[in-house]
Amino acid sequence: MGTQSNGNPMCDQTITISANGKEVVCTVRDKCMGCEPEAIDVSKAAFLELFGSLTAGRTEVKWWFN
Q1: Pairwise CA distance, residues 40 & 33, whole Å
Q2: 3 assigned to some structural domain
Q3: Which Gene3D superfamilies does this UniProt record tie to the protein (predicted)?
Q4: Based on the number of CB atoms within 10 Å of its own CB, is 45 exposed (0-12), middle (13-18) or buried (19 or more)?
Q5: Which end of the chain is more exposed for a tag (fewer CB within 10 A), N or C?
Q6: Does residue 42 form part of some domain?
Q7: What is the domain range of residue 23?
Q8: pLDDT tens profile 18-35
């Protein structure tokens, strides 16, 4: 997304995240500062929908732009 997220064409697009046998659709809001290039940071609500609790911490998921 680049060092500056404001005005980035990826912002406001939706992605699907798949993990733990579940899928959730989320909206890209900004760059995840400190994340690896293909890593994402998600809201607590999305994480809970995928994993049921916040105890999993960092974990592997599959994700793609819709």
Answers
A1: 10
A2: no
A3: RlpA-like domain
A4: exposed
A5: C
A6: yes
A7: 14-65
A8: 999 999 999 998 888 888
